[in-house]
């Protein structure tokens, strides 16, 4: 597999908050852009680069564009609640697409990145194809349910029994050097999407989830709602599926088809 340079850039979003994105892939104009959005607590590096998913897409001729969400990774992490209005991550996604001048592109994400992708789709994004990974129907139509779990973790750090789900979540937070204050504020940006809105998305959409990932409800139900939804199950749970080569294989096969 060819080695492509990895470059990180920064831009100012619609409200002046400075966000980072990382690129990998061919430099020529024929390279097809695909925007991939990482999950909550995570980063572009951890979600897409570390386990080889971006490299697989780059090898297929894609220009892989991977933003760090506000409050995450190399992007700004403001502590002002005003920097976290509802749907701000969706608006940041559109700001990046406008900044890069993308018109013909693909769009996808894992977990919160999948939900952000969906919010972009129901708010007018027009990629050729979309990919929703690690996100079930419950996590889309009732965002506060999952948000309450993370709120409990972030407000009780250091108190969880070793090996518990909460302890593992806190361990991941430490691994990525997450900012608990900024991440708490991210929770107030979540917006529910109705089943009717999901059913109105007509573009080809791949839904991928780990066989043991029950964190956000049924991903199969999401695929069933979509007029052109395709469901692929890969090994792993919510935390481990993102490490599996099958994730990058499924995305690459779908987008290159």
Structure description:
InterPro entries: AB_hydrolase_1 (IPR000073), AB_hydrolase_fold (IPR029058), Carboxylesterase_BioH (IPR050228). Keywords: Hydrolase. GO terms for molecular function: hydrolase activity. Pfam families: Abhydrolase_6 (PF12697). This is Alpha/beta hydrolase. The chain has 257 residues and is of the alpha/beta class. The protein has a single domain, classed as Alpha/Beta hydrolase fold, catalytic domain (Rossmann fold, 3-Layer(aba) Sandwich). 37% of the residues lie in helices and 18% in strands. It is built from 11 helices and 8 strands. An 8-stranded mixed beta sheet has the order 1-2-4-3-5-6-7-8, sandwiched between helices. α2 packs parallel to α11 and α3 packs across α4. The two termini are 19 Å apart. The model has no long low-confidence stretch (mean pLDDT 96).
How many domains? The number is: 1
Shape: globular
**Class in CATH?**
Alpha Beta
**How many strand segments?**
8
CATH architecture: 3-Layer(aba) Sandwich
> What portion of the residues fall into strands of 2 or more residues?
15-25%
Helix content: 25-40%
Oligomer: single chain
Radius of gyration based on Cα positions: 17 Å
Assign the CATH superfamily.
Alpha/Beta hydrolase fold, catalytic domain
Order of helices and strands: EEEHHEHEHEHHHHHEHEH
The major sheet is characterized as: 8 strands, mixed
Q: How far apart lie the N and C ends?
A: 19 Å
Strand order of the largest sheet: 1-2-4-3-5-6-7-8
Whole-number average pLDDT? 96
Q: Which consecutive residue ranges, at least 5 long each, have pLDDT under 50?
A: none
The structure class reads alpha/beta
Can you count the helices? 11
Keywords: Hydrolase
Domain AB hydrolase-1: 34-238
Pfam families: Abhydrolase_6
GO molecular function, one term: hydrolase activity
């Amino acid at each position: 597999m060819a080695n492509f340079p990895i470059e990180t850039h920064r831009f100012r979003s619609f409200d002046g908050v400075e966000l980072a994105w990382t690129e990998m892939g061919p430099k020529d104009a024929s390279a097809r852009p695909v925007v991939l959005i990482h999950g909550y607590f995570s980063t572009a590096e951890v979600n897409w680069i570390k386990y080889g998913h971006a490299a697989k897409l780059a090898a297929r001729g894609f220009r892989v564009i991977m933003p760090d969400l506000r409050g995450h990774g190399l992007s700004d992490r403001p502590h002002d609640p005003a920097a976290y209005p509802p749907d701000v991550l969706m608006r940041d996604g559109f700001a990046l697409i406008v900044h890069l001048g993308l018109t013909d592109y693909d769009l996808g994400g894992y977990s919160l990145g999948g939900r952000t992708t969906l919010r972009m789709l129901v708010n007018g994004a027009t990629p050729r194809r979309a990919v929703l990974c690690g996100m079930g129907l419950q996590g889309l139509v009732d965002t506060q349910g999952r948000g309450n779990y993370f709120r409990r973790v972030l407000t009780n750090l250091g108190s969880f029994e070793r090996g518990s789900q909460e302890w593992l979540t806190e361990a991941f937070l430490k691994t990525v050097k997450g900012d608990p204050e900024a991440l708490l504020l991210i929770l107030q940006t979540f917006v529910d999407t109705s089943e009717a809105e999901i059913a109105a998305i007509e573009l080809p959409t791949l839904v991928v989830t780990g066989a043991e990932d029950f964190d956000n409800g049924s991903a199969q139900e999401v695929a069933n709602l979509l007029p052109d939804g395709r469901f692929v199950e890969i090994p792993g749970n919510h935390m481990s599926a993102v490490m599996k080569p099958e994730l990058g294989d499924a995305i690459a096969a779908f987008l290159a088809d």
